[in-house]
From TrEMBL:
Belongs to the MurCDEF family. The lineage of its organism: Bacteria, Bacillati, Bacillota, Bacilli, Bacillales. It catalyses: UDP-N-acetyl-alpha-D-muramoyl-L-alanine + D-glutamate + ATP = UDP-N-acetyl-alpha-D-muramoyl-L-alanyl-D-glutamate + ADP + phosphate + H(+). Pathway: Cell wall biogenesis; peptidoglycan biosynthesis. It comes from Rossellomorea pakistanensis. This is UDP-N-acetylmuramoylalanine--D-glutamate ligase. Cell wall formation. Catalyzes the addition of glutamate to the nucleotide precursor UDP-N-acetylmuramoyl-L-alanine (UMA).
């Protein structure tokens, strides 16, 4: 870890805890800052805050008192989940207090080269693939960010021999000043998180922050099939590497005659790739570019792609039972992700869907439901999804109480050769704490059959 003096003797407020806040507070305390932590959860329900208190860090819990900002803080480290519309943040902006997220701290103390991955969809799969390829190529990867351990925690143990591979959200990227990945990836860009960002333009600009500090010594890997994304990053100083599943691109990764190629060099045949789905092919191409730029051999890349079956909860193959294949795509918390999952299969599908009602309808799924033979719905959006299925001409439409009860019903409706797919198109919070919990319950129910 770099022994920086940037925060020594400075008054810093860490706003919001969870894993990122705990890591940021601990690191700043270690760097000699005068740290105050403010979290909304009461102290007696807050083991994270209690642990920081034992380290000698000042903790204020149970509310976000705006008058706290009168104490002369020089920097605020904000939990990414706290929106800029929060009164505390709005007041801090008015007072001119700089606001960062913990990934900025990670960059400042890391001795390792950084590969940063962002985009609307595909971040976790791409991040995991890159780590697998770097591991197979003996490039010492450390996985961090939304997919694993908090980046500012990983950075403290990173050495120059490591490569930090960080999955980054738009929320995190809004809070950077110096953060500069040597290799940055923009997987794709669609409408998302507009309740947080307000407009698509603001969301896009937050994503583009991943490249704002890059120089001509760095690389930016971009989806060459999205003109709006290409336009967004034109001002970047990084060397641009494009990937495309639809056309041959110069200085990039593409498919020609069913061969994946990087700069005209054949890497692997598409038929030898295990991971299903056109959307995953995009993730694979961007991961190949990052691996090649990191010096990984073709043999190592090919070995990973011929065995890698996916990330848990992301079109994850669970098991086969009596000729039926079960897939867990609980991470599909919006219709875009469910469209991708449905497009990955040519076989008849029994779809399990439903969850938190955010006020939207699901009619944009209709063109993707052509090989769905039955739908089983649950949660707050159950009725809406049943209505969409009726419009799509799906005869078998069955509401159930939850994911666990959906599995045996799906099995009863299925035939040999069918796909039974959990791809909810909704967040999980109406019935489950996380999409991971929802996916784990699905997996457990499948194994009980």
């Amino acid at each position: 870890m770099k022994k920086i003096k940037t925060y020594e003797h400075k008054k810093i407020l860490v706003l919001g805890l969870a894993k990122s806040g705990v890591s940021a507070a601990t690191l700043l305390h270690r760097l000699g800052a005068f740290v105050t932590v403010n979290d909304y959860k009461p102290l007696h329900e807050n083991p994270e805050a209690q642990g920081l208190l034992q380290q000698g860090i000042k903790v204020i819990c149970g509310e976000h008192p705006i008058e706290l900002l009168d104490e002369g803080f020089q920097i605020i480290v904000k939990n990414p989940g706290i929106p800029y519309s929060n009164p505390m943040i709005q007041k801090a902006v008015e007072k001119g207090i700089p606001i960062i997220t913990e990934v900025e701290l990670a960059y400042q103390v890391s001795e390792a080269s950084i590969i940063g991955i962002t985009g609307t969809n595909g971040k976790t799969t791409t991040t995991t693939l890159i780590c697998e390829m770097l591991e197979k190529g003996s490039k010492n990867p450390l996985i961090a960010g939304n997919i694993g351990t908090v980046a500012s925690e990983v950075a403290q143990t990173a050495t120059p021999e490591h490569n930090m591979v960080i999955e980054l959200s738009s929320f995190q990227l809004m809070g950077i000043n110096e953060f500069r990945p040597h290799i940055a990836i923009l997987t794709n860009l669609y409408d998302a998180h507009l309740d947080y960002h307000g407009t698509r333009e603001e969301y896009a600009l937050a994503k583009a922050n991943i490249t704002k500090n890059q120089t001509e010594d760095d690389y930016l890997i971009v989806n060459g099939d999205q003109p709006h994304l290409i336009n967004l990053i034109q001002a970047s100083n990084a060397q641009k590497i494009y990937f495309s599943t639809k056309k041959i691109v110069e200085n990039g990764v593409y498919i020609e005659n069913d061969e994946v190629k990087y700069l005209d060099e054949s890497i692997i045949s598409v038929k030898d790739i295990v991971l299903p789905g056109a959307h995953n092919l995009e993730n694979i191409l961007s991961a190949i570019a990052a691996a090649k730029l990191s010096g990984v051999s073709n043999e190592a890349i090919k070995e990973v792609l011929s065995t890698f079956q996916g990330v848990k909860h992301r079109t994850q193959f669970v098991k086969s039972s009596r000729g039926r294949k079960f897939y867990n795509d609980s991470k599909a918390t919006n219709t875009l992700a469910t469209k991708s999952a449905l497009s990955a299969f040519e076989q008849p599908i029994i779809l399990l869907a439903g969850g938190l009602d955010r006020g939207n309808d699901f009619d944009d799924l209709i063109p993707y439901l052509h090989n769905v033979k039955a739908i089983i719905t649950f949660g707050e959006t159950s009725e809406k999804l049943l209505e969409t299925a009726q419009k799509a001409g799906i005869d078998r439409r069955i509401p159930v109480d939850n994911v666990e009860s959906a599995v045996p019903v799906a099995f009863e409706l299925s035939n040999e050769g069918d796909i039974i797919l959990l791809s909810p198109a909704c967040a999980s919070w109406d019935q489950y704490r996380t999409f991971e919990e929802r996916g784990d319950i699905f997996i457990e129910a499948v194994h009980k059959l």
